[in-house]
Amino acid sequence: MHCMACGAEMILVKTIEDVSMPIAGFERRAYMCSLCHETEQRLVFNKRPEERELEPTSTPASVVPTSMARNLVQTAKSLVRLVRAK
């Protein structure tokens, strides 16, 4: 996938199972641009069950607070800077 802003390659940063959908297999994926560090979120259907975590459907998925998501994005940006420096 490519960045809408600059066209560079997007890096998958985080995947969270979306339990709000009536069908199992939907995921929310967060991507970050490898060049301009813009972030995007996509709702994706993962039709291959072997790639999904095998958890009981009766237990709700943990919710990630916004502050934690921001910290993850900052960490990913730092990682990209370190990789670029080398």
Which helices and strands, and how do they pair?
Layout: E1 10-17, E2 26-33, E3 39-45, H1 66-85
Antiparallel strand pairs: 1-2, 2-3
Which features does this protein show?
86 residues, alpha+beta, 3-stranded antiparallel β-sheet
Describe this structure in words.
This protein is α+β, with helices and mostly antiparallel strands. It has one domain (10-85). Helices cover 23% and strands 27% of the residues. The chain has one helix at 66-85; strands spanning 10-17, 26-33, 39-45. A hairpin with an 8-residue loop joins β1 (10-17) and β2 (26-33). The protein starts with 9 loop residues before the first strand and ends with a helix. The relative contact order is 0.21.
Short description:
With 86 residues, the protein is an alpha+beta fold. The chain has one helix at 66-85, and strands at 10-17, 26-33, 39-45. The chain has a three-stranded antiparallel β-sheet, covered by helices on one side.
Quote the average pLDDT: 77
Which assembly state applies to the chains in this document?
Answer: single chain
- Gap from first CA to last CA: 24 Å
Estimate what percentage of residues fall within beta strands.
25-35%
| Strand tally | 3
Quickly count the helices.
1
Order of helices and strands: EEEH
Note the overall shape. elongated
Strand order of the largest sheet: 1-2-3
User: How many distinct domains?
Assistant: 1
Q: Specify the helix fraction band.
A: 10-25%
The low-confidence parts are 55-61
Q: How would you classify the helix and strand content by structural class?
A: alpha+beta
Could you give a short account of the major beta sheet?
A: 3 strands, antiparallel
Radius of gyration: 15 Å
